[in-house]
UniProtKB/TrEMBL annotation:
CDD domains: PGRP. GO terms for biological process: peptidoglycan catabolic process. Belongs to the N-acetylmuramoyl-L-alanine amidase 2 family. This is N-acetylmuramoyl-L-alanine amidase. Residues 2-127 form the N-acetylmuramoyl-L-alanine amidase domain. It comes from the Bacteria. GO terms for molecular function: N-acetylmuramoyl-L-alanine amidase activity; zinc ion binding. It comes from Bacteroides intestinalis. SUPFAM superfamilies: N-acetylmuramoyl-L-alanine amidase-like (SSF55846).
Length: 146
């Protein structure tokens, strides 16, 4: 097993009024040149957690951080107008909390963050602030919630 020290939460950037099946996600990632889904887990709106890539395999979800991380993506992240929003259902929130808890029990020295938190600290103050985010993903503050 590879060494894991980071768990990264993502959203699929899917509108609240659209579904993104696991098959659609895989097609989208293959079109981008990935060998299958880049995340290790995908959480559907009904709370179903779909394992999408073996943990032993390096992900393709957070450039520069993939070798030692696990990627979790939830379906959603955009409101019905296509604007970034926390669209997680209660089922997704519960499933995400449980999954992260289980992963932290297994990979005790891991840090949990959102994809946006891996943006560069452009002003050098030690904090990645909203104006520095490369992406808004995952549309909620992972550090406060998880």
């Amino acid at each position: 097993m590879r060494s894991i020290n980071l768990i990264v939460v993502h959203c699929s950037a899917t509108r609240a009024d659209h579904a993104l099946t696991t098959e659609n996600l895989e097609s989208e990632h293959r079109r981008r040149g990935f060998h299958g889904i880049g995340y290790h887990y995908y959480i559907r709106r009904d709370g179903t957690v779909v394992p999408t890539r073996p943990l032993e395999q390096i992900g393709a979800h957070a450039q520069g951080h993939n070798a030692h991380s696990i990627g979790i993506c939830y379906e959603g992240g955009l409101d019905c107008n296509g604007h970034p929003a926390d669209t997680r259902t209660p089922e997704q929130k519960s499933a995400l909390r449980l999954l992260v808890h289980q992963l932290l029990k297994r990979f005790r020295k891991s840090y949990v963050c959102g994809h946006r938190d891996l943006s560069p600290d452009l002003n050098g103050n030690g904090v990645v602030e909203p104006e520095e985010w490369i992406k808004v993903c995952p549309c909620f503050d992972v550090g406060k919630e998880l």
